[in-house]
Amino acid sequence: MYPDRVVSGMRPTGALHLGHYHGALKNWVKLQSELPCLFFVADWHALTTHYDDPSVIEHSTWEMVIDWLAAGVDPSQCTLFIQSRVPEHAELHLLLSMATPLGWLERVPTYKDQQEKLSDRDLATYGFLGYPLLQAADVLIYRASQVPVGEDQIPHIEMMREISRRFNHLYGKEKGFEEKARDAVKKLGSKRSKLYQELRTQFQEQGDDEALEQAKAMLDDAQNLSMIDRERLFGYLEGSRKLILTEPQALLTSASRLPGLDGAKMSKSYGNAIALREDADSVTKKVRTMPTDPQRVRRTDVGDPGKCPVWQFHLVYSDDATRQWAEQGCRSAGIGCLECKQPVIDAILKEQQPMLERAQQYLDDPSLVRAIIADGCDHARKLAQDTMRDVREAMGLGY
């Protein structure tokens, strides 16, 4: 079994905003201190929708990495790299495409959804159809155990698991596998060997998932096994195959949903976003001019926080006392809308201050960012090359 590892990426299509911070980056900062993490710039993915004008990608890539660093993503705790600098992603994508049924790609929920949303672009390309497969390669190549996602991305993780399972079924054949697996069982010692065989039988004959998890936990604790024997025993548990690619789990993120200034989804293209490193005057002006409850025309009119976009910002940024003050003041017309917005402005500026300070050193010396990415690419590529060595061998391409 391979070690726990987290992989996640973002497309470089423009400046990051506070929605990105509360939706993903805050979680990355937390995860980096808990598990080995790899975070990458998905520049090839940006081409799926921006292939006709890729000029935005280079500038957005470096700006995005600075945004990550500003948000507190720490290169001493995680690996930061650019997808296209690790060409093994493309090789695995190609090899997986040989055995992935076309119907799997066509049924991904976001495929038709995105085509409708981006109807102004010609997305009738293989790159757009195949992007979930490239996404799978991005994760499977690092044998990641967990992928932090929102609920809307769960179908993509399920597809990654299916692709991994299909690959292992097709190519996870090792000469003399069963004999080698039985020899590895003996190395567990008599007591554990007996338990392993019992749990394996329970899973294979009765479909007992609890027995499978118990057996996996036992193998994780077995100190005297080599990596290859451990891998064989994991494969032997579920059948008679060797596990080459792992099945990643969706790590559901408990992210705060920060809407845009108009209450819709925050997006630069909707013109309703606050950039991660936006200057204070601009932030203040944007929040002060935010729309509020349309029923509250005059200062003396009572309002309903549930119908006001500013209230959604209070839910993310304000403490209980401030929220109570804002809600009561709105419902009783005790405070005006500008008064209600001020704590939100103060909280956003306070949140941004350390980000602006962290970003400054990289803006002053861009070579620091280049060095971080170069080191990250080297590390990521070594891990990717290890996987590809096994994949090529399994597919008969190791000559």
Q: How would you describe the overall organization of this protein?
A:
The model has no long low-confidence stretch (mean pLDDT 92). This protein has 18 helices and five strands. Helix 1 links the parallel strand 1 (6-10) and strand 2 (37-41). It has 399 residues and is mainly alpha-helical.
What is shown here, in short?
With 399 residues, the chain is mainly alpha-helical. The chain has 18 helices and 5 strands. The two termini are 26 Å apart.
Helicity range of the residues?
55-70%
Main sheet, how many strands, which sense, barrel? 3 strands, parallel
Strand content: 5-15%
Q: What's the count of strands? A: 5
Write the layout of secondary structure elements.
Layout: E1 6-10, H1 18-31, E2 37-41, H2 43-50, H3 55-71, E3 79-82, H4 88-97, H5 102-106, H6 109-117, H7 126-129, H8 131-140, E4 146-149, H9 154-171, H10 177-186, H11 190-206, H12 209-221, H13 227-238, E5 249-252, H14 280-288, H15 309-317, H16 320-332, H17 337-364, H18 367-394
Parallel strand pairs: 1-2, 2-3, 4-5
